[in-house]
Automatic annotation (TrEMBL), chain A:
Superkingdom in the source lineage: Eukaryota
Signal sequence extent: none
Organism of origin: Dimorphilus gyrociliatus
SUPFAM superfamilies assigned to the protein according to its UniProt record, in alphabetical order: SNARE-like (SSF64356)
Recorded GO CC terms: AP-1 adaptor complex; clathrin-coated pit
Membrane topology: Peripheral membrane protein
Name of the protein in question: AP complex subunit sigma
Subunit structure: Adaptor protein complex 1 (AP-1) is a heterotetramer composed of two large adaptins (gamma-type subunit AP1G1 and beta-type subunit AP1B1), a medium adaptin (mu-type subunit AP1M1 or AP1M2) and a small adaptin (sigma-type subunit AP1S1 or AP1S2 or AP1S3).
Keywords: Coated pit, Cytoplasmic vesicle, Golgi apparatus, Membrane, Protein transport, Transport
Automatic annotation (TrEMBL), chain B:
The family this protein is said to belong to: Belongs to the adaptor complexes large subunit family.
Binding site for a 1,2-diacyl-sn-glycero-3-phospho-(1D-myo-inositol-3,4,5-trisphosphate): R10, G11, K42, Y52, K56, Y57, V58, C59, K60
Region Disordered: start-end pairs: 676-695
Record-linked PANTHER family: ADAPTIN, ALPHA/GAMMA/EPSILON (PTHR22780)
Keywords: Coated pit, Endocytosis, Membrane, Protein transport, Transport
GO molecular function, one term: clathrin adaptor activity
Record localization: Membrane, Coated pit
InterPro entries xref list: Adaptor_Complx_Large_Subunit, AP2_complex_asu, ARM-like, ARM-type_fold, Clathrin/coatomer_adapt-like_N, Clathrin_a-adaptin_app_sub_C, Clathrin_a/b/g-adaptin_app_Ig, Clathrin_app_Ig-like_sf
Domain Clathrin adaptor alpha/beta/gamma-adaptin appendage Ig-like subdomain: 699-809
Pfam families for the chain: Adaptin_N (PF01602), Alpha_adaptin_C (PF02296), Alpha_adaptinC2 (PF02883)
Record protein name field: AP-2 complex subunit alpha
Organism: Dimorphilus gyrociliatus
Membrane topology field: Peripheral membrane protein
Role according to the record: Adaptins are components of the adaptor complexes which link clathrin to receptors in coated vesicles. Clathrin-associated protein complexes are believed to interact with the cytoplasmic tails of membrane proteins, leading to their selection and concentration.
Length: 158, 911
């Protein structure tokens, strides 16, 4: 199972953090700091796995962003690596050629997509189409939900 | 500013841009504080905010929080958003709650209420939002309030697929956090059958849940094996076009396959005939596919395919029953060892480690020895080299030990600092385990010290000394080799320690050679003295006094060194004391006494190497081999309390002769309890890994001085104590049994003040941190001032976090085994004197008599051992009645010496 997932830039700026295991804020900050330092220091040809505490970290860099998952010792490394890739694909499809800025300005969407893809630290739905459909149905709901309501409000019915 | 997706919040986008434009950290903080003040005033203001505004502000707060700033308001507004009928507002509300509200927040009741409403909503999207929130927080309170609803959602025929998926994983999270709350029994069969669901997304989510349930109760969910195998079989035999969306870069449902393969690793190989044929077929198919040409050049394709392959190999290793599959797996991994992808090389080395432990594939793994050694030399990534070391260690056996050890020694010279200590331990273990010839072992360890002296931990050099002492065939060689090693102008301090100890014991074996005559040996050792630390110097002084016994001809030289101002006025108390005592000993003791006192050390009790324990501590969870069902030779950790760094000198103590005064009948019944205890704890090295709950052996200490006093799952307290007349020294060995540190360690004698007039207790300070697996010594000096009854109570407090999240305060109250009987020393006397004195003690306060039922055998030998344990002498032939036991002793206190006489009349009658 995944314990947490982080997205951060090459400069070490955290862009997204998702925790599947509860930790106090202080611990989280410490973990984040430690991990960013050790991942950013890795050279390109090195393997994508790091032993870290009694867990392991699987990371991959996409353009200026590092995606990084902390998982249990016996988790399947390659599968986690591809899980990161699938998440990148989902973001890419949703935003259309995603870049770091999309994630900064629409951070809540990045979380919504992640919640449809992973839950409780496990893959909930591996089909790209199904995940995006779920996110899109939420987006659609807001549009239909809001128009009539603001109309009602205008008419003073609320 | 990029386009904002969906219903953008302009204010939020502007704020984010502002933050990004901040040139410095200060500017950012300033901008944030301004925004926080603004939001606060909006929330507090008279004007009611509409949903959009609330959503916007809550979202800004969330953003600020995610930047790493603390947020202490806005929670209520977020909770309000949960009951909004606009989806985006609800969604932001849930996101804020999931990220920012901790389990213990007082708003949780309101949150749970909103969740309940949404769970019963007809709109599945709302239901899913609520489920995701539960899965994100997963508190025990939620488990209690909602734990009944979710299983029903999961198995109901009416639930749509996406809700089933969310509820499966939501349930999984609740079970992890509050296993005792969630009752699943009635649902187990229906949950297992989710493996047959048509929707692969539902199966993907359900397998994770089932995996967790199986780990809790394998028997109840046994039925999942057949279903999982048939599901797996359908996936691996399908073509990539069959599964549509669930095919990932031409690999059919890789996530699901991996999860199924892992689920199967919870069970031993199945006896079910269907499974027995189908599962190996599946595994074979997966291995075959690895040989097929790739369907795509993309790394995603090969990664997904290999992810499944590695998991299949894990399952093959777990079952460990099919030699063909094991060897095929090994060959496949062998190909990866030279793959251009670093990831694959890393993983192949890691998996091969497991294969090396199987009897069926051990030899197949050995074929790759050259490649692995090559990896050690050429890999650029230290983590890959680390795996190569692990594999060499795992594949080592008697046939290749000398090659592997020598390669590892060579590599050590240039190895990364981060892995040196572990490598040293591994080399030391291999050298000992596969030594055919102990001269090779001694050479290897001395080489280790030479190459990586700084990384040679105490366990390693203790162990070489143990072995040399216990095997007389290697002692002469060891002495010669250390003598040669010490010739080097710069040699590591650990070498001086081993050299000092071994020459002190066995220097005589090489003294016949004029090149290593006694005087040369002594001068060689002493030439290192000034470079060493206090501990080593102490050891060297002991070696010198041993020389006095071995080589009387150089006594004057030794005395000259010992009597040097630098020694007898050494600022260090321990060294000063040693120098003075040894000097005295060499001056006054006769040759016979010297020979007895400084006799060669007796062999150490044979036991398992403490280095193994040390290696385990270093890497607590070296890639968990999936649970195997074969009994593996358990190498349980053994607490090693014997420290050979200080050569022990036997001391002969004069017996006290003074006697009589008051008489006191020590209540033997006190010790009665201890006698019912089986005497398992009489030795510090006894393995104590089995007792899970805490165990207090205090009573056993009435009759012994050393042993394990207390033990629970975290901590073990061992005792070594000595008492002489009215003085005592108790060393408590606090051993941290876990892998995590204990911090803020404090010690306090809670009843010191009430005892102060009777017993002086001086607790030496102890370091405040006790690292995982480590042991610290707490020394307590005590003096008996007068007769006392209570035992000192030691309160131990520390903070412990373990692998969890919360640091907890731990308190442990331990009775320190210091009782009056410890200050009793036995006296010999004849029958006449005994009864004379017995009769003299006629006054009532001088006598005490009690009759008690024996809780143990009253066989004479047993009673004798007990009485001696109490410090009494056991006087035979004193009492006219043969079956009576008589003893005498003196209680030594600071104020006076009190003679104690005792008679135990044994009656074999029952009742």
């Amino acid at each position: 199972m995944i314990h947490f997932m982080l997205l951060f830039s090459r400069q070490g700026k955290l862009r997204l953090q998702k925790w599947f295991v509860a930790h106090p804020e202080k611990t989280k900050k410490k973990f984040i700091r430690e991990l960013i330092t050790s991942v950013v220091a890795r050279k390109p040809k090195m393997c994508n796995f790091i032993e870290w505490k009694d867990m392991k970290v699987i990371y991959k860099r996409y353009a200026s962003l590092y995606f990084c998952c902390c998982v249990e010792k016996n988790d399947n490394e390659l599968m986690i690596l591809e899980l990161i890739h699938r998440y990148v694909e989902l973001l890419d499809k949703y935003f259309g050629n995603v870049c770091e800025l999309d994630i900064i300005f629409n951070f809540e969407k990045a979380y919504y997509i992640l919640d449809e893809f992973l839950l409780g630290g496990e893959v909930q739905e591996s089909s790209k189409r199904n995940v995006l459909r779920a996110v899109a149905s939420g987006d659609a709901l807001q549009e239909e939900g809001e128009e009539p309501q603001s109309l009602l409000e205008e008419l003073g019915f609320t | 500013m990029p386009a904002v997706k969906g219903d953008g919040m302009r204010g939020l986008a502007v704020f984010i841009s502002d933050i990004r434009n901040c040139k410095s950290r200060e500017a950012e903080v300033k901008r944030i504080n301004k925004e926080l003040a603004n939001i606060r005033s909006k929330f507090k203001g008279d004007k009611t905010l509409d949903g959009y505004q609330k959503k916007k502000y809550v979202c800004k707060l969330l953003f600020i929080f995610l930047l790493g700033h603390d947020i202490d308001f806005g929670h209520m507004e977020a909770v309000n958003l949960l009951s909004s009928n606009k989806y985006t507002e609800k969604q932001i509300g849930y996101l804020f709650i999931s990220v920012l509200v901790s389990e213990s927040n007082e708003l949780m009741k309101l949150v749970i209420q909103s969740i309940k409403n949404d769970l019963s909503s007809r709109n599945p999207i709302h239901v899913n939002l609520a489920l995701q929130c539960i899965a994100n927080i997963g508190s025990a309170e939620m488990a209690e309030e909602l734990g009944q609803v979710i299983p029903k959602l999961l198995v109901s025929g009416e639930t749509i697929d996406s809700v089933k998926q969310s509820s499966a994983l939501c349930l999984l999270r609740l079970i992890r956090n509050a296993p005792e709350v969630i009752k699943m029994q009635e649902w187990s069969s229906r949950i297992i059958h989710l493996l047959n669901d048509q929707h692969l997304g539902v199966v993907t989510a359900a397998v994770s849940l089932i995996d967790t349930l199986v780990k809790r109760n394998p028997e109840e969910y046994k039925g999942c094996v057949t279903l999982a195998v048939s599901r797996l079989s359908r996936i691996v035999t399908s073509s990539y076009t069959d599964l549509q969306d669930y095919t990932y870069y031409f690999v059919p449902a890789p996530w699901l396959s991996v999860k199924l393969l892992r689920l199967l690793q919870n069970y031993p190989p199945s006896d079910d005939p269907g499974v027995k044929t189908r599962l190996p077929e599946c595994l074979e198919t997966i291995l075959n596919k690895a040989q097929e040409p790739p369907k795509s050049k993309k790394v995603q394709h090969s990664n997904a395919k290999n992810a499944v392959l590695f998991e299949a190999i894990n399952l093959i290793i777990h079952m460990d029953c099919d030699p063909t599959l094991l060897v095929r797996a090994c060959n496949q991994l062998g190909q990866f060892l030279q793959h251009r992808e670093t990831n694959l090389r890393y993983l192949a080395l890691e998996s091969m480690c497991l294969l090396a432990t199987s009897e069926f594939s051990h030899d197949a793994v050995k074929k790759h020895q050259e490649t692995v050694i090559q990896a050690l030399k050429t890999e650029r990534d230290v983590s890959v080299r680390q795996r190569a070391v692990d594999l060499l260690y795992a594949m080592c056996d008697r046939s290749n030990a000398s090659d592997i050890v020598s390669e590892m020694l060579t590599y050590l010279e240039t190895a990364d600092y981060s892995i040196r200590e572990e490598m040293v331990l591994k080399v030391a273990i291999l050298a000992e385990k596969y030594a055919v010839d102990y001269t090779w072992y001694v050479d290897t360890i001395l080489n280790l010290i030479r190459v990586a002296g700084d990384y040679v931990s105490e366990e390693v050099w203790y162990r070489v000394i143990h072995i040399v002492i216990n095997r007389d065939d290697v002692q002469g060689y060891a002495a010669k080799t250390v003598f040669e090693a010490l010739q080097a102008p710069a040699c590591h301090e650990n070498m001086v320690k081993v050299g000092g100890y071994i020459l002190g014991e066995f220097g005589n074996l090489i003294a016949g050679d004029p090149r290593s005559s006694p005087l040369i040996q002594f001068k060689l050792l002493h030439s290192k003295f000034h470079l060493c630390n206090v501990q080593t110097r102490g050891l060297l002084l002991s070696a010198y006094i041993k020389f006095v016994n071995l080589f009387p001809e150089i006594k004057v030289h030794v005395q000259e060194v010992l009597s040097n101002e630098n020694q007898i006025r050494n600022a260090d108390v321990e060294l000063q004391q040693r120098a003075i005592e040894y000097l005295q000993l060499s001056t006054i003791a006769s040759a016979d006494v010297l020979a007895t006192v400084l006799e060669e050390m007796p062999p150490f009790p044979e036991r398992q190497s403490s280095i193994l324990a040390k290696l385990k501590k270093k890497r607590p969870a070296t890639k968990d081999a999936p649970v195997t069902y074969k009994q593996t030779p358990a190498s349980q950790a053994i607490t090693d309390l014997v420290d050979p760094s200080i050569p022990q000198i036997k001391t002969v103590e004069p017996l006290p002769t003074q006697s009589t005064g008051n008489s006191l009948l020590v209540d033997l019944a006190l010790g009665g309890d201890s006698l019912t205890e089986t005497n398992n704890h009489n030795n510090l090295t006894s393995s104590s890994s089995n007792s899970q709950e805490s165990q207090d052996n205090f009573n056993a200490f009435y009759t012994k001085n050393n042993g394990v006093l207390f033990e629970n799952e975290l901590i073990q307290v061992g005792v070594r104590s000595e008492f002489r007349q009215n003085l005592g020294r108790v060393c408590l060995f606090l051993g941290n049994k876990s892998n995590y540190p204990m911090t803020n360690l404090t010690t306090e004698i809670t009843n010191a003040s009430e005892l102060s007039s009777q017993l002086m207790i001086d607790v030496k300070p102890i370091e405040s941190e006790l690292p995982g697996g480590a042991q610290k010594q707490l020394q307590i000096n005590t003096e008996c001032i007068t007769v006392f009854e209570a035992n000192p109570q030691l309160l131990l407090t520390y903070k412990y976090k373990g692998g969890g999240t919360w640091e907890t305060d731990q308190r442990l109250s331990i009775r320190v085994p210091v009782m009056l009987s410890k200050f009793v020393e036995g006296v010999a006397m004849n029958s006449k004197t005994f009864f004379q004195r017995w009769k003299a003690l006629g006054q009532p306060q001088q006598e005490n008599q009690s009759i008690f039922k024996a809780k143990f055998s009253v066989a004479k030998e047993n009673v004798k051992a007990r009485l001696m344990g109490f410090g009494f002498s056991f006087l035979e032939g004193v009492d006219p009645n043969e079956s009576n036991c008589v003893g005498a002793g003196i209680v030594a206190t600071r104020q006076q010496q009190i003679g104690v006489l005792m008679r135990l009349e044994l009656s074999k009658q029952v009742g």
